[in-house]
From TrEMBL:
Stored Gene3D superfamilies: P-loop containing nucleotide triphosphate hydrolases, Valyl-tRNA synthetase, C-terminal domain
Annotated segments matching region Disordered: 499-540
GO molecular function: ATP binding; ATP hydrolysis activity; DNA binding
Organism: Rubripirellula amarantea
Name the UniProt record assigns to this protein: Putative ABC transporter ATP-binding protein YheS
Compositionally skewed regions (Basic and acidic residues) per UniProt: 524-540
SUPFAM superfamilies, alphabetized: P-loop containing nucleoside triphosphate hydrolases
Domain (ABC transporter) ranges: 5-223, 283-505
Keywords noted in UniProt: ATP-binding, Nucleotide-binding
Length: 597
């Protein structure tokens, strides 16, 4: 297995910030590596050094003679009025049939392939760039945050592309689910050093925490021993009879050293607004149409209509769907940033909505400082220490809390908006891509906070790990319709995966020149019958499971009515709620398999 890139004793700093301090690593053929590290650690600088676009102060980067790097460009490489097909042919020098064949792997066809590429969304443009990479036949890919602004379907297509790409890759990403699906090894940049781990990211993070916990235990033992020796020395050094022993103990003390525990950032803790739990309907939509009203230059544009939706207090609703389907338009309508085009939308009584979205965090009062904004928008019952803790969790520490809003970057404004929202009193949170501009640890802390929040959450996110952690229900926006998805987020992921797999099978069949789309082989027929029998068996097992769980719930309900011990009553209540959730999930799966979606 040849070494494609070797880095030796690399040093790089910007002012007082050391990014690379004797960093060393070897990247070999056929291995996909997930590259992680805190924001500002120097990951992008290191990639530029590998590409030869950044000079090291010391050290060297050695390329194998056969190395062909494919780098996912962040800038716009397209010409005005150029189609995706024109770009692919110009960029690669390959004929149209070859470009079209590769583009098909990313579902680029029809108007997406032959229309103006600049008219495509950012996600579709990324698909075009990925097709261009593949046409150059690289043996190492370098991808810097490739999932930024990609919808779920494009993320999965990218995963499938990388899974089938039989050569090396180095991928920078904060998306754990994506790295877990694509990379077999993990590279961390921390404090200028590179650490290669022969395993996936979850195993690495577990190993790293175990190592730190081991160091903490060793340090505790060392500190206790140091104190014991110090007491002995202090007690005995003045006595002639014991002075030699004290000197011996002093030598032992000099040898005892604690281990520096590397922690990238202070532990992040985020609190959600403290609100009273409520029951009943929080939001009801009937015959709702969303979109943009007519202007003197443009006709009315309906994104989705005939929307019938009911959301209960305490639910955490994930709004899912491809980019351009209308997820953000729906959220903006729900918070009255856009007026409905038709139908009715009614919030429940005493609802206070807190909004996190681009149209909010780009319009903050620029005259205020960070701390002034938090003081003005937070719960009046909170003390200053609460504000400082939340500000610190979202990377506003020390002198940064005195910065004026007008000098903050877009990402800093977004984090400030999130901080003030979480310090407020809203009992409904409407969040559009809340994980953007946050690192892995902070996203995890936000998910934990929302999981314990007693109010209602309606949100969009392309981070599958975050959605899986937070969502209790899924609403899909697709093809002009908005509907509650009968199943959990994992079943939604499975359905999208299935659609993509089916498209890939169709393309493979067409490319192989085998059967036409309208014909079914004997093998296909047998497989369909096998799948049908498997589904029927799963439905029967679900029916048995639902009956068993319901029987247990009824028995516990009866026992609960006569229980006098408060502790036992609480245990029964907890188990009954667990059973209720299990029954709902099993029923949703039964509905899905039975075709009642």
């Amino acid at each position: 297995m040849p070494v494609l890139i070797q880095v030796r004793d690399a040093h790089k700093a910007y002012g007082d910030q050391v990014l690379l301090d004797g960093a060393e690593v070897s990247l070999t053929d056929d291995v996909k590596v997930g590259f992680i590290g805190r924001n500002g650690a120097g990951k992008s600088t290191f990639l530029r050094a590998l590409l030869g676009d950044e000079e090291l102060e010391k050290g060297e980067v050695i390329h194998h003679p056969s190395l062909r790097i494919g780098y996912l460009r962040q800038h716009d490489p397209f010409k005005p009025d150029e189609s995706a097909l024109d770009f692919l042919m110009r960029d690669s020098g390959q004929p149209d049939w070859k470009c079209g064949e590769v583009a098909g792997q990313f579902e680029l066809k029809g108007a997406y392939l032959e229309g103006p590429v600049k008219a495509l969304s950012g996600g579709w443009q990324t698909r075009v760039k990925l097709a261009a990479l593949l046409l150059h036949d690289p043996n190492m890919l370098m991808l810097d945050e490739p999932t930024n602004f990609l919808d779920l379907r494009t993320q999965i297509l990218l995963e499938h592309f990388l899974r089938d790409f039989g050569k090396a890759a180095l991928i920078v990403s904060h998306d754990r689910a994506f790295l877990k699906a694509t990379c077999t090894q993990t590279l961390e940049l921390s404090r200028g050093k590179l650490t290669m781990f022969s395993g996936k990211i979850d195993a690495f993070l577990e190993y790293r925490e175990e190592r730190r916990e081991h160091d903490r235990r060793v340090n505790s033992t060392v500190i206790a021993k140091q104190k014991q020796l110090e007491r002995f020395i202090e007690k005995n050094r003045a006595s002639a009879a014991t002075a030699s022993q004290a000197r011996s103990k002093a030598k032992q003390l000099e040898k005892l050293q604690t281990t520096e525990i590397e922690v990238d950032e202070p532990t992040v803790y985020i609190r959600a607004p403290k609100v009273e739990p409520r029951s009943g309907t929080a939001l009801r939509c009937e015959g709702l149409a969303i979109g943009y009203p007519a202007t003197k230059d443009l006709p009315e544009h309906v994104i989705a209509d005939t929307i019938a939706l009911e959301i209960e207090h305490g639910q955490r609703i994930a709004i899912v769907g491809d980019n351009g389907q209308g997820k953000t338009t729906l959220l903006r309508t729900l918070v009255h940033s856009l007026e409905p085009l038709a139908g009715s939308m009614k919030w429940g009584h005493n609802i206070e909505i807190g909004t996190y979205a681009q149209h909010v965090y780009t319009s903050l009062d620029e005259r205020q400082t960070v701390i002034e904004h938090l003081e003005y928008n937070s719960d009046s019952n909170l003390v200053r220490q609460d504000l400082l803790a939340m500000a610190g969790a979202l990377l506003f520490r020390d002198e940064h809390i005195q910065k004026k809003v007008k000098v903050l970057s877009g990402g800093e404004r977004a984090r400030l908006c999130m901080a003030s929202l979480l310090l407020g009193t809203a009992n409904v949170l409407v969040l559009d891509e809340p994980g953007n501009h946050l690192d892995v640890e902070t996203v995890e802390a936000l998910a934990t906070a929302l999981d314990s929040y007693k109010g209602t959450v309606i949100f969009t996110s392309h981070d599958r790990h975050f959605v899986r952690r937070v969502a209790t229900h899924v609403v899909e926006v697709r093809d002009g319709r908005v509907k509650l998805y009968f199943g959990n987020y994992d079943s939604y992921l499975e359905s999208v995966e299935g659609e993509i797999d089916e498209g890939e099978r169709e393309r493979s069949g067409t490319a192989a020149g085998g059967k036409s789309a309208g014909k079914t082989s004997v093998g296909d027929y047998r497989k369909e019958k096998q799948d049908q029998r498997k589904t029927e068996k799963e439905i029967k097992n679900l029916e048995k499971k639902i009956a068993r769980l319901d029987d247990e719930r009824k028995k516990l309900d009866t026992k609960m009515s006569t229980e006098t011990n408060p502790d036992e009553a609480m245990k029964l209540h907890t188990r009954i709620e667990e059973l209720r959730v299990e029954i709902e999930e099993a029923e949703a799966k039964w509905l899905e398999l039975s075709g009642y979606e």
